[in-house]
Design brief:
By secondary structure, this protein is of the alpha+beta class. It contains three helices and three strands.
């Protein structure tokens, strides 16, 4: 990440998604109307949410909007530590 993006650190979005599946109680979810943009010039592949007060689309997904950050980080580190001990 430092060489390509100039960032000191890494993104752990896959680990966060796994934690949401394994420990859903650590996440706050909200029902939303969403879809994947497939025809836009600038947004192809982006997930788009209808966040208007009265959405034109029906709610079709539960979206994580918050998490217990400290606990999620602790769980990821614990699992990584356990995996390192097993190898």
């Amino acid at each position: 990440y430092r060489q390509r993006f100039g960032l000191e650190g890494i993104h752990v979005h896959d680990s966060i998604a796994l934690m949401a599946a394994l420990r859903p109680e650590l996440f706050t979810v909200q029902e939303m109307a969403g879809d994947v943009e497939t025809s836009g010039n600038l947004t192809t592949g982006a997930t788009v949410f209808d966040r208007r007060r009265v959405p034109a689309w029906r709610h079709n997904m539960a979206v994580a909007v918050d998490m217990d950050e400290a606990e999620v980080i602790e769980e990821i580190i614990r699992h990584l530590s356990n995996a390192a001990r097993m190898s």
